[in-house]
Amino acid sequence: MAGDWIITGGRPLQGRVEVPAAKNSVLPLLAAALLCSGPVRLQNVPRLTDVEDCLALLRGVGCTAGWQGAALVVQGQPMRTDLAPEAAGRMRASILFCAPLLARLGRVNTVLPGGCRIGARPIDLHLQGLAQMGVRQLPAAPGQLTLYAPAGLRGAEICLSFPSVGATETLLLAAATAQGQTVLHGAAKEPEIADLAAFLNACGGCVEGAGTDTIRVQGKRCLAGCTFAPVADRIIASTLACAVAAAGGRVELAGCAPGLYAPLLEILEQMGCTVERARDAAAISRFGALRGAGNVHTAPYPGLATDAAPLLAAVMLCAQGESSLQDRVFEHRFACADGFAALGANVRVAERTLYVQPAGVLHGAKLTAPDLRGGAALVIAALAARGSSRLGGVEFVRRGYADLDRLLAGLGAQIWQEIPARRGLAKKTPMKKQFCLAIGAKK
């Protein structure tokens, strides 16, 4: 089990980071690999626990899947319809593997998907859309899900009542090899949706309109494999931008177009940061005081990403003025508020909104990551605090960040992992003063 992170704040960040491929793109791409008759090679993929769980799902249905350096290679015809329950139960993205198995084998058995407890995350939109494409839900034990496509998948005209990213991805995967045309209205517009469509087209699919609210898919009998570089991770870029805003300093984020996380960068500028933009890079710096952000809210793309909400909230703790941040997607996005309070912040949560009042200098505290992005937010806040903090629950953070502690240490942060040793002792994992993360992203 991973040990706690020890973070001593007050050190500005300096350096350059190559932003890796996006977790939120890699996971649906791994599901899409089930549709392909040839090998799929995904480049520059970070080694995350969610990625490893996806590999377990692929191997569990009979595919070969593994690492070749920083690339992932998947090959093989799925032969089994049961998704590995432990891996499926740990992450939300496991639901994405259902449509490809229905397309290839006509049936899938799984447990209901897991993931962070940030609010209601129903799969009703997934199931409603699949039902229109000929999928039936069979009786199953509590917590189990069995889907069956007795006549195969067929195209349909589907209207989503909410632009759900997951439902849009599920229906794209179902439509790619379905019989006939599928038209999806009210689709999500996130960059990861466009990335999935680009992958399917590179494999021989026919997807038009991804990135708009209407997507048209002409089903193909089969898809080939391809080599593909997923889009850069705008949430990792957002995390590092917020870390600089909270701790001070200047960091260049390379390989990730600033337009992918423009709302966050604009808010940081309003709070007193300087942002230098290029086509595929941005440099964020903060050397003076931060102003309050006023009233901010998340929204589906191109609005402020819900995943960025806790990260931005951590910056608000360091401002001299008032801020409020409402998450309009998930009702329990701010479970990190207790950790903020432990650091000395003046915060309160009412329904979906976090309110922040100026509270002076933050101080070190004992913290526990409540979820993936909440854990990253506590790291950011600890970087700005006076004294040392101990963060437990880092396994949540590792679901979406590969060696975040080492990355931050390479930028000048004082952060190290305490690994439990035998006889109740603890061992410090040393960090080099200069550590360069060089896992590429799509250019």
Automatic annotation (TrEMBL):
<dbReference type="InterPro" id="IPR001986">
    <property type="entry name" value="Enolpyruvate_Tfrase_dom"/>
</dbReference>
<dbReference type="GO" id="GO:0008760">
    <property type="term" value="F:UDP-N-acetylglucosamine 1-carboxyvinyltransferase activity"/>
</dbReference>
<dbReference type="InterPro" id="IPR013792">
    <property type="entry name" value="RNA3'P_cycl/enolpyr_Trfase_a/b"/>
</dbReference>
<dbReference type="InterPro" id="IPR036968">
    <property type="entry name" value="Enolpyruvate_Tfrase_sf"/>
</dbReference>
<feature type="domain" description="Enolpyruvate transferase">
    <location>
        <begin position="8"/>
        <end position="403"/>
    </location>
</feature>
<protein>
    <recommendedName>
        <fullName>UDP-N-acetylglucosamine 1-carboxyvinyltransferase</fullName>
        <ecNumber>2.5.1.7</ecNumber>
    </recommendedName>
</protein>
<keyword id="KW-0133">Cell shape</keyword>
<keyword id="KW-0963">Cytoplasm</keyword>
<keyword id="KW-0961">Cell wall biogenesis/degradation</keyword>
<comment type="similarity">
    <text>Belongs to the EPSP synthase family. MurA subfamily.</text>
</comment>
<keyword id="KW-0808">Transferase</keyword>
<keyword id="KW-0131">Cell cycle</keyword>
<keyword id="KW-0132">Cell division</keyword>
<dbReference type="InterPro" id="IPR050068">
    <property type="entry name" value="MurA_subfamily"/>
</dbReference>
<keyword id="KW-0573">Peptidoglycan synthesis</keyword>
<dbReference type="Pfam" id="PF00275">
    <property type="entry name" value="EPSP_synthase"/>
</dbReference>
<comment type="pathway">
    <text>Cell wall biogenesis; peptidoglycan biosynthesis.</text>
</comment>
